[in-house]
Design brief:
CATH superfamily of the largest domain: Isoleucyl-tRNA Synthetase, Domain 1
Shape: flat
Strand order of the largest sheet: 1-2-4-3
Number of helices: 20
Structural class: alpha/beta
Strand content: 5-15%
Helix content: 40-55%
Distance between the termini: 36 Å
Bound molecules: arginine
CATH architecture of the largest domain: Orthogonal Bundle
């Protein structure tokens, strides 16, 4: 509807030009917004204020002229001038009703695939081998996965890239330790605690000279393609990713082993990249190392910042890998857009790598590179979220605890669930709660992780939204077989308000796709649920004195709300429940 009004206004601007009221070279930016308060109509534009200077008239007079040019349109009920010269549009309720019916009845909620689908590489989750996923990985995993779902929903080709940390000098030590552990366990090694595994390996490396010597030898061997070391390395990767896959599955995250594109993938490219940077006079030698000086990044002394792409011992760096990785995503994956979900501390690293990739001509201007950065997860004390003893919180433990806490919520609740059903409900509520807590905050800032808030049935939480959905399910259960959907006639104010919100779903989702910010969708669903509750309180459906037509209309509104809630939560990676 917004686009529709935009088109009407754009025609109107042309008319004003034809009539000589506006100079031909003036190109206003036509913006149509949703009104904050529906007593001012549904949409508003500041076009008149923009044109007032060029037309040498006061904005209200310009607004009047614009309105004069607008055709009578069945979709629009009323147009008004407001305040200093805003133009407010009230949409026609029957048109609004028809759009709500579309949401309720059409496949994909009537949302068409985007006209120009893109190939979008989304780099997210990206844990490190032989390390437990830490809290910042839940942020990247959960936010990235939601954006992936949104981009796919709109018809784009999305390539999930799990950029795992699977390369580096630490692998010599890890291989040597794996070898030792396998020997001691007669090849029946089960590693469930990667933290301990890494710690022990490091301890031996630091304390045992023979072990350290062997480890250093293995690094060299691994890098020169030695079969044995390569196989041991593969085992380490598999061991880690099997454990991580369990977490992805529990969290309903869509990543699989097919999406792993770790740092090692780019390893063969690195010598050529450095050679090429040298030939292009981008990289120069400094004390044996190869360095790219970037004018765009300056150090404290005001001099261009030097980014090392190869160390003096010949080793490559995290940045070199990300330069190669950007090139690969353009050349091999044909990406039009690359999104990288990594925490804000990696910002300058990524910008530097990407700047070098652009200068070297690996990434054309037409391909956008976007760091979707996020802040830290903090404890209630405002300090980084840690275990009681100050260690990193393991993701598995976090999910376990969420389930225990969710279980408590249901202890005193009367339900007719079988034990199996109950387990499922508790699981979905628990997982929804931790994911939503992360998703609902503007990702750019730090946020405070608070169990009590996230598991509450009140407020902007997943349990609240899941509960709103079950309310609608129960309306349909009550309506039973006679639950027929009809045309939507919007009578009550609360009904109109709900409908206006419902039809904003598509633009909300598009906004998330553009900005990579799922909290926009969370806020929308929260507001929608609030409006639904108001509607539900004031607009009876299953009462005996409600006539058939009104009932059928309201059931359609309910169905549309349920469809939007279900799809919306699904795009956040959260499952709905029929009963709670
Ligand atoms: N492995 C990194 C970490 O654990 C995140 C990688 C982000 N992606 C990238 N292309 N650098 O923090």
């Amino acid at each position: 509807m917004k686009q529709y009004i935009q088109q009407l206004l754009s025609n109107c601007v042309n008319n004003l030009k034809d009539k000589g009221l506006l100079e031909a070279d003036i190109q206003p930016k036509i913006i149509v917004d949703n009104t904050k308060d529906r007593s001012h109509g549904d949409f508003a534009t500041n076009l008149a204020m923009q044109l007032s200077k060029a037309m040498k008239k006061n904005p209200r007079d310009v607004a009047a002229l614009i309105i004069e040019q607008l055709p009578n349109d069945e979709k629009i009920q009323k147009i008004e001038i407001a305040g200093p010269g805003f133009i407010n549009f009230y949409q026609n309720a029957s048109n609004l009703g028809a759009q709500v019916k579309k949401l309720a009845t059409e496949a994909n909620l009537g949302i068409k695939n985007t006209d120009n689908p893109q190939t979008i590489v989304v780099d997210y989750s990206s844990p490190n081998v032989a390390k437990e996923m830490a809290v910042h990985h839940i942020r990247s995993t959960v936010i990235g996965d939601s954006v992936v779902r949104v981009l796919e929903f709109l018809g784009n080709k999305v390539i999930r890239a799990n950029h795992i940390g699977d390369w580096g000098t630490q692998f010599g030590m890890l291989i040597a330790y794996l070898e030792k552990a396998e020997q001691e366990n007669a090849n029946d090694l089960k590693v469930s605690d990667l933290e301990a595994f890494y710690r022990e390996a490091k301890k031996l490396y630091d304390e045992d000279a023979v072990f350290a010597e062997k480890a250093r030898g293995y690094v060299v061997k691994l890098q020169s393609g030695d079969q044995y070391c390569y196989q041991m390395w593969q085992k380490l990767v598999k061991m880690t990713m099997d454990l991580n896959q369990q977490i992805y599955d529990r969290l309903n995250v869509s990543l699989t082993d097919k999406d792993v594109m770790g740092e090692s993938l780019y390893n063969d490219m690195l010598p050529k990249i450095v050679e090429d940077l040298k030939n292009k006079k981008l990289a120069v030698e400094n004390q044996g190392a190869m360095v790219v000086y970037l004018d765009e990044f300056r150090g404290k002394d005001g001099n261009p910042m030097g980014v090392i792409v190869q160390k003096s011992d010949g080793g490559y760096l995290y940045t070199t890998t990300d330069i190669a990785c950007a090139k690969y995503r353009v050349d091999v994956l044909h990406a039009n857009r690359i999104l990288c979900f990594a925490d804000s501390r990696q910002h300058s690293h990524l910008l530097q790598a990407w700047q070098i990739a652009r200068l070297a001509g690996y990434v054309p201007d037409t391909v956008s590179l976007e760091h979707e950065s996020f802040g830290m997860m903090l404890g209630k004390d405002g300090k980084p979220f840690k275990t009681r003893t100050g260690g990193t919180v393991k993701l598995t433990d976090l999910i376990d605890e969420a389930e225990i806490r969710a279980q408590k919520l249901f202890e005193n609740r009367e339900t007719d669930f079988t034990p199996e059903e109950k387990k499922k409900v508790i699981h979905e509520v628990a997982v929804g709660a931790i994911k939503y807590a992360d998703l609902s905050k503007n990702r750019t800032t730090d946020y405070i992780f608070d169990w009590d808030n996230m598991l509450s049935f009140d407020g902007n939480t997943s349990p609240y939204l899941q509960y709103a959905y079950t309310r609608i399910c129960s309306i349909f259960r009550k309506a039973g077989d006679c639950a027929e959907l009809g045309d939507v006639t919007l009578i009550h104010e609360n009904e109109v308000n709900l409908a206006s919100k419902l039809i904003q779903f598509e633009e909300t989702v598009k906004n998330v796709a553009e900005k990579g910010m799922p909290h926009i969708l969370c806020n929308y669903l929260y507001e929608l649920s609030g409006l639904f509750m108001k509607f539900y309180e004031t607009c009876p459906i299953n009462k005996s004195d409600v006539d058939e037509q009104t009932k059928a209309s309201r059931l359609t509104v309910c169905r549309a709300t349920a469809a939007v809630l279900k799809q919306g939560l699904n795009l956040l990676g959260i499952n709905v429940l029929e009963k709670m």
